[in-house]
Amino acid sequence: MNNIKQDRARPRKVVFYGRVSTEHEAQISALDNQMEWYQELASSHPNWTVVDQYVDEGITGTQAKKRPSFLRMIEDAKSGKFDLIVTREVCRFARNTVDTLSYTRELAKLGVEVYFAADGIWTMDNDGELRLSLMATLAQEESRKISERVLAGQRMSREKKVLYGNGNILGYDLDKANNTYVINEEQAETVRMIFEQYATGDGLTKVAKTLMEKGRKDGAGHVNWDASKVTRVLRKATYMGYCVYNRSRTVDYLEHRRVNNTDEDTYVMVKGDFPAIIDEELWYKCNAIRKGRTRHLLDENGKPRRYGGTIAKNVWVTKLVCSCGAKFRRCLWQTKADGTQTWGFECYRHTKRSLQFLQQHGLPEGLCDLKDFPEWKLELMAVKIFEAVWGSRREAVLEACRMLSACYQRETADPAKLNALDKRIDGLNEKLNNLILMKASNQITLKQFLEQSNEISAQQSRATREREELLARESQDGGLDIDAIEASLCEAVTFTDGKVSEWFIQTFVKKVVPMDGTRFAWVLDLAPQPQTVFCEATGRKEYPRISLESNLFPGAWPDIQDEPPDRPFLLDREGNPNGDISAAELEQGRQPSRTPGSNPIGLMQMTLHFEDAHAFQKARNCVVKPSRWHDIDLEVYL
Q1: Where is the Resolvase/invertase-type recombinase catalytic domain (predicted)?
Q2: Which of 128, 265, 410, 465 has the greatest number of CB atoms lying within 10 Å of its CB?
């Protein structure tokens, strides 16, 4: 550094820089005080000629790119307009350490010095950059603490149920005096219409079309509705009387970049002090429908994107999967003389091309010879399966599960690995403490301290995560969750009109796979491990025959469409635990890497005869002819 630059008494062309972080009246007053202070400082330096002053009002100091006056000052420095910048404190110049050092270095190359008056730092002094780096680090740390205080303030405001936003919410008017919402009945009726229609299963576009036809106005007072507007209404928990927070967040206290939070599970909902427009049950029902219609897929860049989907209104359509891999569609099966309609199901491949067409044109990849079947067969199988599993054989099922669970060994964490990780974490902690002492005694530079401390922190995070994963594997029991299965089996099974309720099927049936014209595969989910049931049906569609019987398959079954290996079942034909199966045979039957639930586990088989079908249909005032009935065999797997 030459002596001319260090001569403080030489004539200087000076500019002042001042900044306040908000446009609050008190802060603006503080800015006026800053500029007045600068003028008094200039009067005590007769060699200074003040050529300009630069002021940023209501702007953060963590990013230079967001301060137009600051950037204009840098450009003027390049043109030689001045050779000294005077600012009150390092935190007024910047709260970002990188910005502070990079800009002061750039200015030094241009022959421009920066004087931080309150801190007594001249950047062209021999120790100027060292002192500046320390003060800039403190300023950045203060910015981080301010960010934490802001977050703490937000948490307190949530507890006080403070309303955010401008209050422009369809269905409500903002009462600013009392900081609450009051219902706007005209708009609230529109909100109720949206939720009630959507709850019936209508899509977003159909709801929007209805609103347009009825001339309902949106929040801006226009009759202009589309699917996105309807979605925004459905997502607002405000309508059931809740304040919703954490819908957006600041990702970096330095950049102050705010992004929308798309993870609705992380939203914070607090019961508000204002009246609800709809009840909670209706809101949650619509919310479940909306989420069920959303598909999360990866785009061409590998980023997750949300897409709309459809939900089948029939529960069986959501469970049926053909052995050829296709889904099923519900079709009209029969119209009786009195006009009553009955329904059946057909593989989607049949709706595209007929079996005869595919055979004639040599298209074996599209072949599926599964014939259509009536819905009542599924209902009959469901009744018999649930009567057996949840009724007469419930205790036997639990005993079989306990016997199978005993064959799975609990995985324990390797003590040597755990001890090595503990030693590594302790060593890293000691290394970081030594590094702090070295910086405090000026044995290393700030740059070296930051680089080494960041590397140590990264190693600590990796070691801690590895230790947690090791302990997590130990906590996972290799056996079946008997308590969860027993809780599921204690659910009350009621058959209204001779049928299992849709809720029960939706909850406990994972999928149903028709294997051919007579055999069906049922996959039950008794949480958390899936249970599987296979059935077989024979006979013509008007007079089918259904059977269910049982053996237990303890080994792995890679694909539900494959034939299971010939092994005994856990329950015998009478529904009792199979005493012919030893623990050694069970252990021999499973793959070493297998975990419960990864493949179906056989439980039992049942056979539905004509008498079962006849009694079931008679209770529904329907007829099953013996000549057109074939038995259905059902295999139940866990």
Answers
A1: 13-161
A2: 128
